[in-house]
Design goal:
The chain is an alpha/beta fold and 271 residues long. Helices cover 40% and strands 15% of the residues. It has ten helices and ten strands. Helix 2 runs parallel beside helix 3 and helix 7 packs across helix 8. Bound molecules: NADP nicotinamide-adenine-dinucleotide phosphate.
Amino acid sequence: MKHLTLKNGEIIPALGFGTWQIKDEQCTEAVNTALSVGYRHIDTADGYHNHKAVGQGIKQNGIAREELFLTTKIFPGDLSAESVRQKVDTYLEELDTDYIDLLLIHFPDHSVPLAETLGAMNEAKAAGKVRSLGVSNFTVHHLKDAMETGVEIVMNQVELHPGFPQHKLRDFCKEHDIAVTAYSPLGRGEALEMDLIKELASKYEKKPGQIILNWLLAVGLIAIPKSTHHERIKENFESQDFVIDQADIDAIDVLEGSERLINPEFAHFSY
Ligand SMILES: NC(=O)c1ccc[n+]([C@@H]2O[C@H](COP(=O)([O-])OP(=O)(O)OC[C@H]3O[C@@H](n4cnc5c(N)ncnc54)[C@H](OP(=O)(O)O)[C@@H]3O)[C@@H](O)[C@H]2O)c1
């Protein structure tokens, strides 16, 4: 399994399991299945309302905590220092764990100074409740603001899939050693239907999703596909068992023209 070393020295499995829009028993079962097929990185968020179900899936599986990389996110509205302090303790209780590997600001919220939010997150890190700090849905402009606070952020989790490759943002992150996680890596299923992806699936005798995930890891990104189906969870995990020619990786990487799929009103993507 491929791993990346974050700029603070922490190690993250490059392929993670996404849990948005799965809750309760379905989420518990999916997390348990993902861990059973080999995933060692689970992505959740307070806004997904599934922390307890994720925690139960981990417990049911029985995997040792130190083998697992767990990411969660703080939702806009909870980004004051006081809220961050309370929320981190709540997350630990809900997830039934002593620490969070990676804590992200889920979306930027201009109503609270970033220095306040990141300062409180940094306190949680100093207290050993969190190992690494990062952000999600941040533009280059937001990242520059975050870097000015002096708090070390190691990750930006953003929408990224074939046709929506985010090159400018990736280049900026690379320059500043901020790792990038591709969320909605399969374009929420839509990218599986793209002509080039289907052609390459046939060329390599693999599934379209495996081609996409192989590309993302080949270009140095982290990907967190979600599925509720056992065979797809396994199929997605097995996306690293083959090598795609560099020319084909490059061809996927220059695909453009897909729409941004996640664009809630409170996001600030034009900032
Ligand atoms: N930070 C953020 O703001 C943010 C935003 C969005 C997502 N995320 C994270 O990223 C994760 C993944 O994104 P996502 O859930 O939006 O979309 P995604 O992983 O790109 O796609 C999920 C969709 O593709 C289907 N699928 C998965 N594997 C498949 C396969 N092998 N063959 C055919 N269909 C397949 C799933 O259906 P089935 O479940 O029926 O298999 C589901 O409908 C989320 O779960 C979440 O953890 C973060």
